[in-house]
Specification:
Elements lengths: L1 E2 L2 E4 L8 E3 L11 E3 L4 E5 L1 E4 L3 E5 L7 E3 L2 E3 L3 E5 L6 E4 L2 E3 L4 E6 L2 E5 L2 E3 L4 E7 L2 E5 L2 E3 L3 E7 L3 E5 L2 E2 L4 E4 L6 E2 L10 H6 L1 E2 L10 E2 L36 H16 L1
Parallel strand pairs: 1-4, 2-5, 3-6, 4-7, 5-8, 6-9, 7-10, 8-11, 9-12, 10-13, 11-14, 12-15, 13-16, 14-17, 15-18, 16-19, 17-20, 18-21, 19-22, 22-24, 23-25
């Protein structure tokens, strides 16, 4: 779907989500691409099996994503340069084959969202990314957050960033301010072991993880009901929240069934 005008997509009802997927089993579809001159605001969507769930093209508009589930795509969301900040709020980016969020030359806010069990990175900051992460859960990714080249800035607070093989990998010169988060450990040495930064290799930025929390934040991450993951039979399922991989495991078979169907 290429957007050159205005596209606003909202849920059909309070209990069900609009599902976008390929009708051909096993094949990726292009996803939603917001082009220069367009405008994209997305709420209550479930996007399955796309190459990229939602893309904001370079020099296009900032996108606003809220209450969405983007899963089993190659990449969940790709944010490129825009005059304004991209917004992702109360959304789930899980089980995508490569990355949950890819950022290039863009400013973004990731708020009250869950980034979980993606194949390579939860959040990939490619170049000149400028991000603020607040009250999120980032877990079960090989690398939770990685910066690659050029200047990249990141601030993170109130977030559960635990259960990843690598929490943060900094390959850019700027320091990351990541105070007041839960890292799955209360020992600074154990937390530092999860981080690859300028303390390991001079010339890279360093991660400030001081003032870390001793226990997980109970309200961090997307507060979506389990039934919201699929519009089918949503009202018949008890309310559960995307707090960990156990919920994803319960639903994974149904997600695959939706894609194949």
């Amino acid at each position: 779907i290429e957007v050159v005008g205005i596209l606003a997509v909202t849920e059909a009802s309070e209990d069900e989500r609009a599902i976008l997927r390929n009708g051909v089993a096993g094949q990726l579809w292009g996803g939603i691409s917001v082009e220069k001159g367009g405008s994209g605001s997305f709420s209550g969507l479930e996007i399955l099996g796309a190459d990229v769930g939602i893309t904001s093209r370079q020099d296009g508009p900032a996108v606003d994503i809220e209450n969405c589930v983007i899963t089993t795509c190659m990449n969940g969301v790709r944010l490129e340069r825009s005059r304004d900040r991209h917004q992702i709020r109360n959304s789930v980016l899980a089980a995508n084959r490569k990355n949950g969020v890819v950022v290039s030359l863009a400013k973004f806010d990731l708020i009250q969202s869950t980034v979980m069990a993606n194949g390579e990175h939860g959040i990939l900051l490619k170049y000149y990314g400028n991000g603020k992460i607040q009250n999120c859960t980032i877990t079960q990714n090989p690398t939770a957050i990685r910066s690659t080249v050029y200047e990249t800035k990141l601030e993170m607070a109130g977030t559960n960033i635990a259960g990843n093989r690598i929490s943060i990998s900094v390959n850019t010169p700027n320091d990351f301010r990541c105070r007041g988060n839960f890292w799955g450990a209360v020992n600074p040495i154990a937390i530092a072991a999860q981080i690859h930064d300028g303390y390991d290799k001079p010339g890279r930025g360093r991660v400030d993880f001081t003032e870390f929390a001793a226990k997980p934040f109970s309200e961090a991450g997307a507060q979506l009901k389990q039934g919201a993951l699929s519009g089918s039979g949503a009202t018949q399922r008890p309310p559960r929240y995307w707090q960990g991989l156990s919920v994803l495991s319960m639903r994974q078979g149904e997600v695959e069934e939706e894609v194949a169907g």
